[in-house]
Design a protein that fits this description.
By secondary structure, the protein is α/β, with parallel strands linked by helices. Helix content is 26%, strand content 19%. The structure holds adenosine monophosphate (AMP) and zinc ion (2 copies).
Length: 408
């Protein structure tokens, strides 16, 4: 009985810790907040998903604000590299999160993602400054309910409030949390807020980009955004905040008859392979690099590169975490080790495929009204967000001039 009570108590404690935000013990003298900037990511929302169904709430943003033809991802078009590029303005080779899964020889450890990932909560992996650190260093508050690595301490800094990543809180809860934070007063008011929806991506993987299930996920997220907009309106602050909705990449069909079995070409005992599907990174054993590279030549629907020869358009070479050989699949094809099969949809391909583009829509006092602009690259958003909050950006690869035409 006593054990049962202890288990019950510990379970309750665990549930509470999951649903409570963590307040940082910051001894900072915060200054007057900026016009609040809300950054929302809808993981895997492809640029043309607006055409699949009505999205009345996203339309409320677009009609009163701006919409880009698309948001171009960085290579690889995966979740972590792109979320970190959005918030640091750096290419993956400069921010260090070069993939969702990679190896660092200095640490002799692998980086990996997902709810419960210790690596994704460890700031030692990131090699550039995310915007919430820039904000906090300039004595303004950042409050985040989910964004890749927002639950890590970086340069000794954490957001004023944040949550450890979990899949469970509902999409409405996420928006409610942001609204509650906006109710803070004085110097406790946040200048930067962010949140994240995973459902459009996870359903897109499972059922494919054209499935009804994916459309239902789009509608669910659009409703959550409606909840946020209504909350802002009720508070009378809808026109006093800058709201940006982005996605990290798109999605494409990956049929099960478009598989390249890597074991048909190389001896897997000669290499270590990382990732799979749209691309595979390969670390040949000592003395095997040239053999492996030759064996992967001229395979239909693929391209193989040595790291140092990877085309410069990818901006993906000057980081020692990148493996010696990069093996790329054409759109819709999947490179697999034996026994592994693709899901019905995926991303990670060359960012030049239109299907990999995400979205960038926004409204608020900083943005033009009813303005449609061209595709822009996600590395430029960091400078733009710093400008909107009137803070000085850290070192980055982006440029404010690239987003100027969207700004008032
Ligand atoms: P991808 O494999 O590129 O589609 O990545 C999507 C996955 O990233 C989601 O299904 C989550 O499991 C994971 N993810 C998203 N945000 C976080 C986070 N803040 N911490 C850890 N994992 C995350
Ligand atoms: Zn993603
Ligand atoms: Zn995904």
């Amino acid at each position: 009985m006593k054990n049962f009570k202890i288990v019950l108590y510990l379970s309750l404690l665990f549930l509470l810790s999951c649903s409570e935000s963590i307040k940082s013990e910051n001894a900072r003298n915060y200054v007057e907040p900026s016009t609040p900037l809300i950054l929302i990511s809808i993981d895997g929302f492809r640029w043309d998903y607006f055409e699949k169904t009505d999205t009345p709430n996203l339309d409320r943003i677009i009609n009163n604000g701006i919409k880009a033809e698309g948001l171009k991802t960085v290579y690889p078009s995966k979740t972590f590299p792109n979320h970190i590029s959005i918030v640091t303005g750096n290419y993956p080779s400069n921010h260090g999160i070069i993939s969702n899964y990679f190896y660092d020889s200095g640490f002799d450890e692998y980086y990996y993602i997902g709810a419960g990932s210790q690596a994704a909560q460890d700031g030692k992996w990131i090699q550039a400054e995310p915007i919430w650190v820039t904000v906090e260093k300039q004595l303004k508050r950042a409050m985040i309910m989910f964004w890749p690595m927002s639950d890590a301490e970086i340069q000794g800094v954490r957001p004023s409030e944040y949550y450890v990543y979990s899949d469970s809180p509902s999409n409405i809860t996420r928006m409610e949390t942001l609204l509650n934070w906006l109710d803070n007063s004085g110097n406790d008011k946040p200048s930067f807020l962010a949140s994240y929806f995973s459902i459009v991506d996870s359903i897109g993987h499972r059922y494919g980009p054209d499935a009804q299930e994916t459309i239902d996920a789009i509608i669910e997220v659009d409703n959550a955004i409606g909840y946020l907009l209504d909350g802002l309106e009720t508070r009378g602050i809808l026109d006093e905040v800058n709201l940006i909705v982005v996605s990290d990449h798109g999605m494409t069909d990956t049929p099960s008859d478009q598989i390249i079995n890597i074991a048909d070409y190389i001896d897997l005992d000669d290499v270590k392979t990382l990732n799979g599907g749209p691309f595979m990174e390969i670390r040949p054993n000592d003395g095997k690099l040239e053999t492996i590279y030759q064996q992967l030549q001229n395979i239909e629907h693929t391209q193989v590169y040595k790291k140092e020869d990877f085309p410069s358009k990818f901006n993906y070479s000057n980081n020692e975490r990148i493996e010696p050989i990069i093996f790329l699949a054409d759109e819709g094809w999947s490179i697999q080790t034996p026994g592994r099969y693709p899901s019905l949809g995926t991303h990670g391909y060359d960012p030049d495929y239109r299907s990999m583009d995400g979205i960038f829509v926004a409204r608020g006092p900083g943005f033009k009204e009813s303005f449609k602009g061209p595709v822009i690259q996600n590395i430029h958003l960091y400078e733009m967000m710093c400008y909107l909050m009137d803070i000085s950006p850290a070192q980055n690869d982006g440029s404010l001039s690239e987003t100027q035409e969207f700004l008032r």
